[in-house]
């Protein structure tokens, strides 16, 4: 669970959205994949596909790579090709603006921050807790790594889970 | 935010009465004042207590009773007899006898039912638009009308000369020119034609905001020779502004303008320094419009007027949450000025520095706090604030971009009344 790599992913996504890329890739890891699926669940990105060093074929109707592509099927992951896999992300844009705003790390590799449910409650209400800023803007999210996977702060409160605060998306 | 009703099948609506299943209850998003004013069905035990507490309700006028309507005394009858004839007096007496005092008491009491009118009117006058359009009758139309020929006009002139009084002057001739008709046929067809179109509500140049346009016109507009200095001044900058923006003079007066930054600037040429005055002004209608304007001029007052005019011209809508604060925390950066505007709960007030305070007042933002970091240059502070206020994102748009549904919980909780 390398936060160094996660920080690199955050910076890379910021760069990719600022130059309006439609498709980009990040290194494959279980944490990256779970975070990307959480982002997709929140509607920040359109697709998450694990492919090779070259972009996987686009879905004929959707226009971006998708797992349910029946025409050009995505190469299945095997023990032989797992090392060369990357996570390919479809980025979303709405009215000339990137849907995925600025991503920034909350925990740092040298300083990991964990939050309990009661602390998360205060954060979601907009209060600052232990140097972690509250969620005070519309469309802002905070992602946590819990023992039941990576999920959004509000979802953590629903499930009464605390965890390691990973990153913030504005 | 929009609260659309869930889409339902059109055909389902025909068979709704037959379906025994209760429909999904939906919250009413309109303020149901008519129902709120109704008396409770069950008398409240603590009514006397609540009445003592609830003093804000307007007191009801004492109701009229049949006993209040008494017959005319002998003195009153004698006074009436001076005005009216014997027959009229008999008619008055018959009318008095015919109407039951109980009916009178009922009719004279103001209505209390939920559908009563919220304004006082005796309904004796037909209000155009509210009641119905007042048009000329259709019988005014004459389908056989023809334009008059030259011979007809000559005949009219001959008739005028023949009937001319002995001491005729120019006024008589002008009146003749005004009154002479240009068509043959029914007179009403030319003067008061029937039209199916909606009749004009206002005279030329008249609007709802300015019904009495004559009185509001400036001396310059009325063409008076001795113009005041104020009117002179308005005719130049102000009138130009009104022309370009399309605001009426009363609307322009309600716009709040203020010069926030003013200092002299110098251009160094080989002939020497040329000083000019720089001005930065803000303008807002206190209902969500805000603009900033900059200007430079040799004269300070000139720069002031120009900056204000430009600020009014540059006014743009600022998104406001509940018409009082901003959507989310905002950041702005111009030069070395970095600032942060933070939304606040109702009643918090404007706890911000004076430049931002003036801008918020102009825009109509009432709850806000702000931090200005690094530099605090006044000019750049104003510009950064403007940038920050304009950079707001609409939550509805964010939700659409992410493919989510959004509901403002405060709005639902307070039944759309915040």
What order do the helices and strands come in, and which of them pair?
The complex is a heterodimer of chains A (170) and B (418).
Chain A: H1 3-18, E1 23-27, H2 30-41, E2 45-51, E3 86-91, E4 93-94, E5 97-98, E6 103-105, E7 114-115, H3 117-124, E8 141-146, E9 149-152, H4 153-158, E10 163-169
Antiparallel strand pairs in A: 1-3, 2-3, 4-5, 6-10, 7-10, 8-9, 8-10
Chain B: H1 33-36, H2 47-53, H3 74-83, H4 86-98, H5 101-108, E1 146-147, H6 150-163, H7 170-179, E2 183-184, H8 187-191, H9 213-216, H10 229-245, H11 249-254, E3 256-269, E4 272-284, E5 289-297, H12 300-313, E6 316-317, E7 330-334, E8 337-343, E9 350-351, H13 354-363, E10 368-374, H14 378-390, H15 395-402, H16 409-413
Parallel strand pairs in B: 9-10
Antiparallel strand pairs in B: 1-2, 3-4, 4-5, 5-6, 7-8, 8-10
Helix pairs in contact in B: 10-12
Which parts of chain B are unreliable, with pLDDT below 50 for 5 consecutive residues or more?
1-28, 30-37, 50-57, 224-230
Low-confidence segments of chain A, given as residue ranges, are none
Report the CATH topology name of the domain at 330-402 in chain B: Ribosomal Protein S5, domain 2
| CATH class term of the largest domain in chain A | Alpha Beta
Taken from the alpha-carbon principal axes, the silhouette of chain A is: globular
Please state the CA-atom Rg of chain B, rounded to the nearest Å.
35 Å
In CATH's first tier, which class of the domain at 330-402 in chain B applies? Alpha Beta
Proportion of residues in extended strands of chain B: 15-25%
Largest interface: A-B, 13 and 15 residues
Question: What is Rg of chain A?
Answer: 17 Å
The average pLDDT value of chain A, as a whole number, equals: 94
Indicate the percent of residues in helices of chain B: 25-40%
Report the β-strand fraction of chain A as a percent range: 25-35%
Under CATH, the topology of the largest domain in chain A can be stated as: Ribosomal Protein S8, Chain: A, domain 1
Major beta-sheet overview of chain A: 5 strands, antiparallel
The SSE string of chain B, one letter per element, is: HHHHHEHHEHHHHEEEHEEEEHEHHH
Distance between the termini of chain B: 12 Å
| Strand order in space, largest sheet of chain B | 3-4-5-6
């Amino acid at each position: 669970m390398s936060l160094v790599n996660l920080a690199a992913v955050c910076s890379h996504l910021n760069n990719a959205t600022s130059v309006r890329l439609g498709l980009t890739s990040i290194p494959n890891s279980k944490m990256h994949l779970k975070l990307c699926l959480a982002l997709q669940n929140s509607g920040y990105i359109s697709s998450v596909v694990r492919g090779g060093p070259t972009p996987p074929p686009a879905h004929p109707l959707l226009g971006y790579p998708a797992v349910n592509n029946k025409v050009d099927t995505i190469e299945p992951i095997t023990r032989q090709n797992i090392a060369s896999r990357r996570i390919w992300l479809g980025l979303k844009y709405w009215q000339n603006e990137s849907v995925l705003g600025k991503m920034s790390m909350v925990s740092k590799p040298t300083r990991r921050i964990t939050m309990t449910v009661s602390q998360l409650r205060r954060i979601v209400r907009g209060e600052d807790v232990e140097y972690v800023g509250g969620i005070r803007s519309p469309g802002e999210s905070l992602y946590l790594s819990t023992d039941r996977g990576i999920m959004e702060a509000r979802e953590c409160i629903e499930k009464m889970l605390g965890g390691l605060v990973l990153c913030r998306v504005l | 935010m929009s609260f659309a009703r869930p889409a339902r099948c059109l055909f389902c609506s025909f068979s709704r009465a037959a379906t025994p299943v209760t429909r999904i209850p939906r919250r009413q998003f309109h303020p149901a004042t008519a129902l709120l004013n109704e008396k409770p069905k069950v008398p409240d035990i603590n009514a006397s207590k609540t009445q003592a507490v609830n003093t804000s309700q307007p007191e009801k006028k004492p109701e009229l009773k049949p006993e209040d309507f008494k017959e005319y005394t002998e003195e009153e009858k004698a006074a009436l007899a001076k005005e009216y004839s014997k027959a009229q007096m008999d008619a008055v007496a018959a009318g008095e006898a015919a109407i039951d005092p109980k009916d009178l008491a009922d009719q004279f009491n103001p209505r209390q039912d939920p559908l009563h009118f919220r304004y006082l009117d005796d309904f004796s006058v037909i209000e155009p638009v509210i009641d119905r359009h007042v048009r000329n009758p259709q019988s005014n139309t004459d389908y056989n009308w023809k334009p008059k020929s030259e011979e007809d006009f000559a005949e009219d002139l001959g008739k005028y000369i023949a009937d001319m009084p002995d001491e005729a002057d120019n006024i008589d001739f002008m009146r003749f020119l005004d009154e002479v008709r240009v068509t043959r046929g029914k007179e009403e067809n030319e003067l008061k034609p029937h039209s199916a179109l909606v009749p004009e509500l206002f005279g030329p140049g008249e609007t709802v905001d300015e019904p009495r346009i004559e009185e509001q016109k400036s001396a310059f507009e009325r063409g008076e020779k001795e113009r005041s200095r104020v009117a002179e001044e308005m005719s130049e900058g102000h009138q130009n502004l009104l022309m370009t923006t399309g605001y009426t003079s009363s609307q322009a007066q309600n716009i709040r303008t203020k010069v926030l930054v003013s200092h002299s600037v110098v251009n160094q040429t080989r002939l020497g320094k040329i000083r000019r005055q720089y001005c930065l002004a803000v303008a807002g209608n206190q209902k969500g419009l805000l603009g900033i304007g900059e200007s430079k001029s040799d004269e300070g007052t000139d720069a002031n007027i120009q900056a204000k005019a430009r600020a009014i011209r540059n006014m743009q809508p600022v998104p406001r949450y509940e018409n009082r604060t901003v959507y989310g925390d905002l950041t702005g950066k111009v030069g070395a000025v970095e600032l942060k505007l933070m939304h606040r709960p109702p009643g918090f007030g404007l706890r911000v520095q004076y430049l931002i305070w003036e801008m918020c007042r102009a825009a109509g933002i009432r709850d806000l706090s702000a931090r200005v970091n690094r530099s605090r240059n006044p000019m750049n502070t104003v510009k950064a604030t403007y940038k920050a206020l304009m950079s707001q994102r609409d939550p509805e748009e964010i939700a659409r971009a992410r493919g989510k549904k959004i509901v403002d919980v405060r709005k639902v909780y307070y039944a759309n009344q915040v």
